[in-house]
């Protein structure tokens, strides 16, 4: 639908509607030309409807002007205000244009803002009053004719405004639906971005653990080339298995990143003992203690696994050879406490501190579960990493 005065192309429906409105206005004008008998008490014979004879020049001019008004309805979508105002003025001079005027008023209320329609309706009221004075109806009192004309125009304007508001409501609902769909898409993209950030943390944790094992055993082979063949074979086996597992982890990460949204395979509490055994095979002296009852929730179990994994990785990096204790204890309703504690490392093997990115990631993980994370050096040397995680009863 075109309402800005630009080029307008009618479809089949528009052609049918426009032709119907044009013919309806003509039928109304033709009906007004006929001479109907005035209402009154019945008589013996019904008074016939008569067709007027040869029109005078004024009547001919009225009919020509009315025909032009009916033809102008073809452009009522492009120029609704101009056509409605012209037909309001024409209705003052001839009642033949009343049908075309009502159609124009309806189209005006449909295609233009209410304030424009009401302004033209004000002109229509004035035209009804002026027409009642200039062309009084011999069959109706002037006041009745005036009120009837205002009521008819008001009903047409109200009908058009109701449809106009309904269309605006539908359009508003459509825009809100599009806006809601866009917001949902943005939320999905944000959630996907968060998932990918979580994947990046998983890459740091998983590969950091695997590569630290590779580093420990490769360093042992470098510094002890004269080690017994059995130890060399064991270190080579751990290096091979860790490298293979690291490649598997990378394949899983790449596979998930290629998908729209996904999650990496998550560890559980059942994998915690295997994690400690791998660290023990790498040469670390780890004492593991489990003391909890019931089934640990999945999120708490994954977080506990990552805490122990990060703690053992840091021990290998910064305190190789130090005695390490890992303890997990708790119960439903009391919470789950995870602790990694290592003693002082040999002076000759002590290494520089880390960048702390792993601890930052752990802090975020624990905070998401509304838990607490503590870490810091011990008075007698060594390091302690401890976390409390909620465990609903």
From TrEMBL:
Transmembrane feature ranges: 15-34, 83-109, 116-136, 142-161
Residues annotated as domain DUF7134: 60-159
One Pfam family, short name: HisKA_3
EC number: 2.7.13.3
Keywords (A to Z) from UniProt: ATP-binding, Kinase, Membrane, Nucleotide-binding, Phosphoprotein, Transferase, Transmembrane, Transmembrane helix, Two-component regulatory system
Reactions it catalyzes: ATP + protein L-histidine = ADP + protein N-phospho-L-histidine
Name of the protein described by the UniProt record: histidine kinase
The species this protein was found in: Nocardiopsis flavescens
